[in-house]
Write a structure and sequence with these properties.
5% strand; globular; two-stranded antiparallel sheet; 2 strands; mainly alpha
Amino acid sequence: MLAYFGHDTAIGAITSDAIGRWRDHRLQTVTGSTVQRESNLLRHLFTLAVTAPATPGSSHPLGHGCRTTSGPLSWLTR
C-alpha cells in the first residue's frame, strides 16, 4: 500500500475512489484474498485514526462515540 499511495500521503487524503483504484491495481498482480487481507489492514488503520486520541489524555475526535470497556463496538447517541 505504501508503494501505491506514497510515503508522504496523509491518511486523510486517501479517498474511497483512491482505495478502489488501489484495489483494481492490486488485483492485476495478486489474488482477491490477498487484497481482502490488505483491505482489512487499511480498514483497521482508518478505524484507529478515527477512534484513537491523537495524544494521551486528549478528547475523542468524534465527541460522544466511544468504545465500551468490554464487548463489541458501540456508539452512544443522544
